[in-house]
Amino acid sequence: MDATLEQTTALTNTTGTDMSAALQAKVLACMASRSPIHIVGGNSKAFYGRAPQGERLSVLEHRGIVSYEPTELVITARAGTRLIDIEKVLAERGQMLAFEPPHFSNSAQPDVVSTTTFGGAIATGLSGPCRPYAGSARDFVLGAKVLTGKGEILKFGGQVMKNVAGFDVARLMTGSLGTLGVLLEISLKVLPRHEAEQTLVFACDAQEAIQRMNTWAGQPIPLSGTTFDGGKLYVRLSGSTAAVRTARTKLGGELLVADAVPQGDNDFWRSLRDHTAQFFQDASPLWRISMPAASAPLGLEGAWLLEWGGAQRWLKTSLPGSIIREQVARAGGHATLFRGGDRHSDIFHPLTPALAALHHRLKAAFDPYGILNPGRMYADY
Questions:
Q1: What separation in angstroms does the CA of 162 have from each of 11, 158, 189, 337?
Q2: How far apart are CA 7 and CA 193, in angstroms?
Q3: In the chain, what is the straight-line distance between the N-terminal and C-terminal CA atoms, in Å?
Q4: Cα–Cα distance between 209 and 202 in angstroms, integer?
């Protein structure tokens, strides 16, 4: 077993550098001077969250795949490793990151190689079209090595799904935007790529699209993506050739592509994932609204695009945030100013007093001096 593991790792290990000591020294110096730090990777998601503060701490040189075990479906890599490098290594073995992390660095210049990093994908916790059917980024995190605001390097979790040794801190770091620690290494569960894939298109209105998406989600259909935009519902089927063929016959609709795509991804779903689709190509404030999937369309003025069976809805509008959040909250959801607008204002949906208190206790435990990405999520956090 050891010989097999050693050979597998050697075949897939990428050129990289361990910068843990240098990053730790920088955090310790900033802790001593109480100087805020702005953690930066590929800078592809600089638009996300509140405006950054403090001195830049780049993890871009802290890169490389530490280990990859295809037979165990586990990969471990340093935070600065480019996401495209990880995806390439996985594709060579017929595997993938099932939560489809976005490559937003492609949105402005499609011909430029993506700078999105592994650490940035986990720190933001964002997932692509397959999220409601395969799981979120957090669901695939097995372990992490983290540099805290006290200058400590801590390791949480491991390389197996069952982890009962204490709190699941590795997943806590997912989506925390670096406010609790600097991600150094992350271990993820990966999955085999789909054998076949097809996208079906249906003409309908928003209400009918929501009803169809939720009805089909409760049936044994190999869904891997659903979206409604411009009077059309797009449904992606992924799985075995037989399962995709059977589902297509059952659902009907028109094919977006003529034949099954053996390697899964295609330009349409990639454009949704990376926000290169036409819907996202303007400067209007963009709101990300999360709500119960079966909820009726909201009566808010603006342009809408629905994803995730209706659970994630994108809204382009100039309406005040207070009006948007009030209506979304009444429907049982929450709203985030995803891109554009005033980045010094409230970006994320306000927390309840109990949740806010929990956030502050976690921040105090991992970053007692408040130097890591201060104010990136909330003004006082």
A1: 27, 9, 12, 35
A2: 23
A3: 46
A4: 9
| C-beta atoms surrounding 73 within 10 Å | 18
Q: DSSP code of 262?
A: T
User: Which class for 355: exposed (0-12), middle (13-18), buried (19 or more C-beta within 10 A)?
Assistant: exposed
Strands (E), 248-295: 254-255, 286-290
Burial class (CB within 10 angstroms; exposed 0-12, middle 13-18, buried 19+) of 220 = exposed
Q: Taking the alpha carbons of 1, 158, 43, 264 in that order, is the dihedral positive or negative?
A: positive
Report the run of H or E that residue 46 belongs to, with start and end. none
C-alpha angle 305/277/250, rounded to 5°?
Answer: 65
Taking the C-alpha atoms of residue 348 and residue 337, their distance in angstroms, rounded to an integer, is 7
CA distance 376 to 37: 11
- The tens-digit pLDDT sequence of the chain (381 residues) is 333 333 344 444 456 899 999 999 999 999 999 999 999 999 999 999 999 999 999 999 999 999 999 999 999 999 999 999 999 999 999 999 999 999 986 444 545 567 899 999 999 999 999 999 999 999 999 999 999 999 999 999 765 545 545 458 889 999 999 999 999 999 999 999 999 999 999 999 999 999 999 999 999 999 999 999 999 999 999 999 999 999 999 999 999 964 444 444 478 999 999 999 999 998 899 999 999 999 999 989 999 999 999 999 999 999 999 999 999 999 999 999 999 999 999 999 999 999 999 999 999 999 999 999 999 999 988
Bridge partners, 63 (sequence order): 17
Q: Output the CA angle 16-19-24, nearest 5 degrees.
A: 160
Q: What does the pLDDT read at residue 108?
A: 45
- Do residues 149 and 370 make contact, with C-beta atoms less than 8 angstroms apart? yes
325, 335 Cβ separation under 8 angstroms: yes
3-class secondary-structure state, position 361: helix
The single-letter DSSP state of residue 201 is E
> Which residues sit opposite 113 in a β-bridge?
none
Question: Phi and psi (nearest 5°) for 132?
Answer: -75, -15
Q: Which two tokens stand for residue 139?
A: 């669901």
Residue 50 exposed, middle or buried by CB count within 10 Å (0-12, 13-18, 19+): buried
